Structure formats: C-alpha cells, structure tokens
Amino acid sequence: MATKTGPRVAIITGCSSGIGLSAAVTLAKDPAKGYIVYATMRNVAKKDNLEKAAGATLNKTLFIIPLDVTKQDSIDNAVKVVFDKHKRIDILVNNAGHGSSGYVELVSEQQMRQLFDTNFFGPVNLMKAVLPIMKKQRSGRIMNVSSVAGITAWPFGEIYAASKYALEGFTESLSIGYRAFGIWVNSIQPGPVRTDFIANMGSANNQPEFLKLAEEKNIDKESREICQKVIQLLVANPNFEKENQTPEEIANVIKESLESKKPHLRNPTSQLRYDYAKKYFVDPYGDEFCETIVPHIIPDSLKK
Ligand SMILES: NC(=O)c1ccc[n+]([C@@H]2O[C@H](COP(=O)([O-])OP(=O)(O)OC[C@H]3O[C@@H](n4cnc5c(N)ncnc54)[C@H](OP(=O)(O)O)[C@@H]3O)[C@@H](O)[C@H]2O)c1
Predict the structure, then answer these.
(1) What number does the ligand 1 atom closest to the CA of 98 have?
(2) What pLDDT is recorded for position 205?
(3) 296 occurs within a structural domain
(4) How far away, in angstroms, is 303 Cα from ligand 1 center?
(5) Which domain holds residue 166?
(6) What's 262's domain CATH number?
(7) Distance from residue 19's CA to the centre of ligand 1 (Å)
(8) Which atom of ligand 1 is nearest to the CA of 46?
(9) Is 123 near ligand 1, meaning CB less than 6 Å away?
(10) What is the rounded distance in angstroms from the CA atom of residue 38 to the CA atom of residue 263?
(11) Residue partners of 255: CB distance under 8 A and separation at least 6
C-alpha cells in the first residue's frame, strides 16, 4: 500500500531474527511494492539470515542498517540516515525485545533496568525520534510489538510483563493523542511464537536452569514447587502446540494492520489469542484470569 508519493518508508527494529526478520521480508516482498524497508539490527554482523531471506529485494526494497535501541546516538543516526534519503518516515515497527523469567527475588535491579531499556525505553525513544517527522507529514504508523504478557501476566514473568504492560500503556495514551495528526499508534499481542526468543533469554532465564539456581540460592521449597506447577500448567494446556505461531503469521498480522485504513489499537494475532483476550477484558476485577491459574499451582503444604 504505497502513499501518493510512492512506497511507504518503514523502519523495523530487531531484524536479525524472528518476528523482525519476517516482518521486514514480508513488507519488502509486498507484491504491490508498497514499502521500502529499513531492516535494522544492533549487530550487522548477524545479517546473513536476513540477507538470505530477503533474496532479490536486498538493496532494492530492503536495506540493512545498524540500530541498537538502547543507545540514543544509534537511534538518532538510523532515523537521520532514513530521513536524509527519503525526507519522510511512514512506518516504525518497534519489534526488538528480550524475554525474562525467573524468581523475582533473584533478579537484580540492573537486570530489570536492562530489560526495560530494551523493551520499553528503546521503543519510547524511537517513537520520540520519529513523531516530529510524522507530525509534519500529518501521517504515520507506529506498531509496537508487545505480547500477550502485556495484557495478562503469568507468574515468574513479572519483569517481562511489566515492560510490556508499560509499552501497552504508553501505546494507548499516545495513540489517542496523536490521531489528530493522522498518526496511528497501535500494538500487537502475540502468544508463543516459534523464534529464538526463549533461547535468547540466556541460561539464567531458562526454566530448568532457574529452578536449579533457585535451589542453589536457597529459594524455599514451596516456591520451587509452585514454579514446577506453573510449567506443568503451561505444557499441559491442550492448546499449547496450537498456540505456537510462526513469525510469518505474526508478520502478516503486522502488514494487515499497517494496510488497514482504521487499524485496531490492540491486535491479537489469531482467533485463539482474540478469544483469550476477550475472556479477560470483560472482567473489570481481573479475578477470572487469576482464578484460571492460582488453584492449580498451590503446593499441598500451603493448602488451607
Ligand atoms: N517469540 C515469542 O514467543 C514472542 C511472544 C510475544 C512477543 N514477542 C516479542 O516479539 C519481539 C521479537 O521477538 P522474537 O520472538 O522475534 O525473538 P528473537 O528472535 O530473539 O528476536 C529479538 C530481536 O530483538 C533484537 N534486540 C535485542 N536487543 C536489542 C537492542 N538493544 N537493539 C536492537 N535490537 C535488539 C535481537 O537482536 P540480537 O540478535 O542482536 O540479539 C533480535 O533481532 C520481542 O519484542 C518479543 O518480546 C515474542
């Protein structure tokens, strides 16, 4: 979907793998040639997979440039490179992000701040960098890749959920205030997606690893049992496999939203995700969500 002046110019963060890579390639391969994509990554030495997937679109409708979302000079530089070349920026997809899970008692403040730097302040600083341009254009689209953890928070993912809830709140507020300028800001809430996301959390965030760490750090037996029950509950979910989407499916939802004349504020990525969200948004007290988990994870020793 091009503008009157030609293809829409898009910046996407975190394109070395997963959803970012798929979104960049999906837009760059648009049959209508509606996009020029700046597929950014913090370490361009990791560009091989993207280059392969981009194929003939490389350096035609897909360009790879560096961008570390935690560094202001890197943000400013990337935005400048794109703006100097095209004199416009039509789309920002804030995709770069990290996971985190484990016992909150064992997560240092520094680890929490690092996660927020990537998942929250990075997207915010990028939005601040492109908004003045979009305002002058009187048009723009900002898509923030949030998570189902940004609308319902499971145990042991406290910091990750907090970072995505923060992003959701920011998105909602901004979205309402900037509509007058023709700027649409929205978010997407994938459930599990088959990417390197879990592997990239690092061993300290890997569930068997953090159970081991919990034992070493003398986390009480009941808390460890609760954690095991949470893992069982997740795996025993009959929809567990069905819930896993591919990065291409998520990329298509992003593209569809970018091409909608009136995009939704929030974008569940499948019917299953839509039904899940619907269940919790109708309960203003939030009890329904808590009650689907709490009774299943109480250790026998703590049952009253
Ligand atoms: N996979 C899921 O189950 C799932 C579910 C819901 C939401 N999400 C969200 O989807 C987004 C993409 O995740 P993914 O599943 O595609 O995982 P992924 O394959 O691990 O991709 C994450 C991307 O973010 C990049 N990144 C991390 N820190 C960065 C920084 N400081 N600056 C720039 N880029 C940075 C990574 O770059 P490096 O290669 O350099 O590390 C990588 O390109 C994340 O925001 C995640 O929270 C994922």
Answers:
(1) 47
(2) 52
(3) no
(4) 39
(5) 8-199+243-284
(6) 3.40.50.720
(7) 7
(8) 39
(9) no
(10) 22
(11) 23, 26, 27, 30
Burial 4-19 (b: 16+ CB within 10 A, else e): eeebbbbbbbbbbbbb
H-type alpha helices, the chain: 18-28, 48-54, 72-86, 109-116, 122-137, 158-178, 207-216, 221-236, 240-243, 247-259, 271-281, 287-297
pLDDT score for 206? 59
Cα separation, 203 vs 121, whole angstroms: 24
Examine residue 166 and state whether it is found in any structural domain, yes or no.
yes
Which atom of ligand 1 lies at the shortest distance from residue 67's CA? 33
Is the minimum distance from the CB of 189 to ligand 1 under 6 angstroms?
Answer: no
Give pLDDT, residue 2.
65
- Residue closest to 38 by CA, chosen among 85, 98, 73: 85
Cα 35 to Cα 90: distance, rounded to the nearest angstrom = 9
pLDDT, tens digit (0-9, with 9 covering 90-100), for 49-99: 999 999 999 999 999 999 999 999 999 999 999 999 999 999 999 999 999
- Radius of gyration over every alpha carbon of the chain, rounded to an integer in angstroms: 20
pLDDT at 91: 98
**Which stretches in the chain have pLDDT values below 50?**
203-204
- Let me know: does 180 contact 168? Beta carbons within 8 Å: no
Residue 129 Cβ inside 6 Å of ligand 1? The answer reads: no
Q: Is 197 in the pocket of ligand 1 (CB under 6 A)?
A: yes
For residue 41, tell me if it sits in a domain.
Answer: yes
Catalytic residue check, 160: yes
Place of tokens 């990417």: 195
Identify whether 93 is part of a domain. yes
Three-state DSSP class for residue 65:
strand
d(CA 181, CA 193) in angstroms, rounded, equals 34
Question: What total number of domains does the chain contain?
Answer: 1
